[in-house]
Each structure stands twice: as structure tokens, then as C-alpha cells.
Amino acid sequence: MSEEVLINVGPGETRVAVVENGRPVELILERTQEDELKEKTGRAGHSLIGNIFMGRVQRVLPGMQAAFVEIGLERAGFLGAREARCLCELTHLDEHVLPPISACVTEGQVILVQAVKDPIGDKGARLSANVTLPGRLLVLVPNQSGVALSRRIEDEAERERLTALVEEMVARFGSMGVTGEPAGFIVRTAAIGATVDDIAADARALAEEWRKVRDTEMRSSAPSVVFHDLDPVAKTMRDYVSTDTSRVLIDNADAFGEAQRYCRRAMPELLDRVQLFNGPGPLFSLYDIDGEIENALEPRVELDSGGWITIETTEALTAIDVNSGRYTASTGLEDTSVSINLEAVSEIIYQLRLRGTGGLIVIDFIHMNDPENNAKVIDALNTGFAHDRVPTQISGMSEFGLVEMTRKRVREPLNKLLTEPAYPAGRPRRKTCATVANDLMRKIVAEASATPGRAIAARAAPDVIDWLERGNAYLLERLKSRVAGPVSLIAEASYPRDRIDVSVVQ
To answer: Per-residue confidence at 93, pLDDT binned at 50, 70, 90?
Structure first.
């Protein structure tokens, strides 16, 4: 399998595409924040995941087995009893029994929590008191002991070797000087093939990072941020680049430098795979990634055979319907159903990964009479999702041809990140002003690069121009730093929300 990572850095957002065999399978988007807002919220871009907060328990809700924790954002974070278990004061509780939330936290209590899911819709960030620090090879788990391994390390001999290496490292170096606290470790997939010295170096770096967290905690008051996870480029290198990655293409010199610095520090063996992209054309045009994103915002996806799948997401679940369309196998209805269903499986896996869909998913396959054919479809789903970074569970097929599955929610899905409900009635959703404005700025940068020094006129709907000029003027300053000539923003009353035009002034 050929894997590439593309990093597109615009004035308002950084977009990362993981490409497998010429198709983008994952899209990570982190939007730039105003410096003042960064300081207040701890957002190193769009995502909060990985940031550690000194929070104050706002409310304890025994009926929900959860607490709301003030962490300095617009909405309080959500802390469930399972994620608060490590704070429980009951020592006699069975490890398989969930403690009452009131035994874990009390109102007004100051606790250390970590964002494990971004705010989605009107819900605050999901929090955990099981704070961890990710490195290149290891994840440090303070105040716990033991060694765990990533589920994606499948070779049993390598699992045994890595477990022995980490245990040897702990025996040699103790708790790694983590402020006298015990420490457990999770071995990441990137550790495959690593030596004990490689692992020890990563553990020492994590121990030093944890010492800084403790020092910041001592000097801070709640609510505040005590640890910022890496910025988007370095985080991408840490989490998405491996020995399986053939190349990393970056279209911004500063971001390229940041990636090189991270490589030299944490993964020097991959330094020569990091390349600065200078065109021709936009980076994402290499694999028509923008076109794939546009398609991913539509509910209907065409299949090569002439069938299609429809993907509809509600608050409760995502429903996927498989349709045969005009396709008919010459050997009969059963073979038609099997063929379309297996083709649909491949596209469903691709679409769910690209769209970032999580939660409960129900797939309505075309009915098949033969149990062996049902098993083929389930096996294909399990095999396809085996390479997914996001944990997935898949049920068997019901007598009605329905398959239920869950995919862990780790970030806001594309449709919620890039679109909003459209009023009045018409298209179910439309692009947000932020989405269109970022498209506009990217197009301005591309035109300015093609015609350096020339004056540029950029036209868009009035609400898009207003979003930039009145609500996010700091983005225009960033835009000017990347464009040599003057830029005029023109509000066109006749333009629909998603129309933009950029041209050189003659």
C-alpha cells in the first residue's frame, strides 16, 4: 500500500490529507485562531484534543453519572464517571464496577483533565482525568503502572519483544524521574523495530514534558491550560507519518522547516521523505482532494457499477442505504446483491474515514438469501476497517440485511465542520462563511503566486466578506503577509454563499 501525507497551509487553516493508493482517506483540518483567543482557550489550531487543563468542577450530576468541568472555554467540558474513575476515593470497589460520580469529584474541586474529543455542535469538549502524554514511540500514563501496546501492532513476536524492551527500560531507568510518580506506558505503532535506547530516549523526553506540566500546574489557577499539544504540522509528523509513508509534501516554507525540526528531533530516519512542494498548481490538486471533499459533503455516492449509496447523518446515528440502481448480474438476483454489496463495502469504508464519521452507524445492505454471502460482506467490512486508526466495532447482519457498527468519535465530522443547516428550506446544509472564506483566501494566494505583484480582485457573497473584514480581520493580516500585490475584497449581493471569483485586475 502506497501512503503519502500532504500538508496544505493556508492563512486561515492547515489541512492534512493522508493519501493511500492515490486517494485521500483521512482529512484533518485545524483552523488558525487569533493569538488572544489561543491564550484564553489553549487552542493550537482547531483541535483541543491532547490539551491538558486545570479545571474546576462546575456541576456533579449523579443521574447522568457525569460532571461538567469549567476549563476556560465557552462551554464546560463533560467528564463521565468512567473517565473520572482514577479520582475515585473508594478503595474497595471492584475494578469492573463503575464508581458513582460523586465518589470521584465534588463541586468546586480543582482537577487536572485532558480533552479527548473536540466540542461538537452544542456539546462541550469530552474530558478525561486519565491524563496522558503522547510521544513518537510511547504514550506516558502518569500515576499508573504497566505496559500496554497499540492494537495495530499485530505481530505477536513483535508485541512480546516490545513489551520486554519497555519493561527492561523501566527496570533500568525506574520511573524516568517523573517527579517521583509512578508511570505506565503505551507502546505506539511507530515503535515497531525500535531499540531499547530509542524507547528510553522517548520516555525521558516525555518525563521532562510531564515535569513541565506539574510545574505549570503549581503556578496556575483554575481554569487554565497547563499543556498544549503540538501544533498541526508537528502533530501530523508524530501521529500520521511512519516508515510506511513514502513522502510528506508541504506547501509552506515555515511549516516545512517545522516538520524538518521535528524529524531531526524525533524521527531522523524519515527526514529525507519530507519535501517542500512548489507546484505547479495547488498541492491538493495532485489527487483532486478538493473534489473528493466536495463529494464527501453530498449524501449520495455513485458506484462504478451504476448503483449508489446514500449517507444521512442525524443526531442519533448515521444511516447508509445501498442501492443497486441499473446494475443487474446475468447470473441472477443473488449474485447482483452480493456484487453490489461488496462494492458498497469498499466505498463505505472510504467515505466514513474521509468524512470522519463516528458514533452509531447502521447500514442497510441489499437483501441476500445465502448466509455465506452475508458472511462475505461482514468479513469485507472487518478486513477494510482493520487498517483504520479509529477503533471500530461491527455487529453481524440481521435478518433484514442491517449491519450495526460503532466508530469512535474523535473529531468533528466534515459535514459539521464545513457546513451548517440552510434556511430557508432548500439544500439540507450549506457551507459556512468560514469554509467559503478559507476557500477564497487559498484562491487569492494561488493567483498571487501565479502573477506576483499584480493587483487582485476577490469577489464573494456579502456575508463571507463581512465574516473576514469585521469578524476575523487578523486573517487578512496573515493573507497580506503572503501576497505581494494589493487585494480588493468585493461583496457581490447577487452571489450565493458558495460562489467565489478571484481575478487579476487589468
So the answer is: low
442: left (phi over 0), alpha (psi -120 to 50) or beta: alpha
The backbone torsions φ and ψ at residue 231, rounded to the nearest 5 degrees and listed phi first, read -65, 165
What is the SS3 string spanning 299-318?
CEEECCCCCEEEEEECCCCE
Contact 482, 32 (CB under 8 A): no
Alpha-carbon separation of residue 414 from 26, 252, 355, 470 (angstroms): 10, 24, 5, 26
Task: Name residues whose C-beta falls within 8 Å of residue 65's C-beta, 6 or more positions apart in sequence.
Answer: 80, 81, 98, 100, 101
Measure the CA–CA gap between 5 and 237, rounded to whole angstroms: 9
Whether the upstream peptide bond of residue 424 has omega within 30° of 0, thus cis, is: yes
Whole-angstrom distance, CA of residue 81 vs CA of residue 278: 50
- Sign, Cα dihedral of 267, 185, 200, 225: positive
- 427 pLDDT band, cuts 50/70/90, is low
Spatial separation of the C-alpha atoms in residues 133 and 238, rounded to whole Å: 12
Give the CA diameter of the chain: 79
Element (DSSP H or E) covering residue 410 = none
Asked whether 319 and 362 are in contact (CB, 8 A), the reply is yes
What are the DSSP calls for 230-283, one per residue? PPHHHHHHHHH--TTEEEEEES-HHHHHHHHHHHHHH-GGGGGGEEE---SS-G
- 164 C-beta neighbours (distance < 10 Å), count: 12
Asked if 133 contacts 172 with a C-beta cutoff of 8 angstroms, the reply is no
Distance linking the first and last C-alpha atoms of the chain: 48
Task: For residue 45, give the DSSP letter.
Answer: S
The C-alpha atoms of residue 404 and residue 397 are separated, in whole angstroms, by 8
Taken as a whole, the chain contains a residue count of 506
Cell output for 157: 513476536
Copy the grid coordinates of residue 454.
499584480
Query: What per-residue confidence (pLDDT) applies to 174?
Result: 59
Residue whose entry in the numeric block shows the C-alpha cell 535506547: 197
Instruction: Count CB neighbours of 437 within 10 A.
Output: 27
pLDDT in tens, 298-342: 999 999 988 999 999 988 899 999 998 876 665 678 888 899 999
Amino acid occupying residue 178: V
**Mean predicted confidence (pLDDT) in 238-256:** 94
Is this model's pTM higher than 0.70 or not?
yes
CA triple 322-24-10, angle to 5 deg: 130
Q: What is the 3-state secondary structure (H, E, C) of 72-109?
A: CCCCCEEEEHHHHHHHCCCCCCCCCCCCCHHHCCCCCC
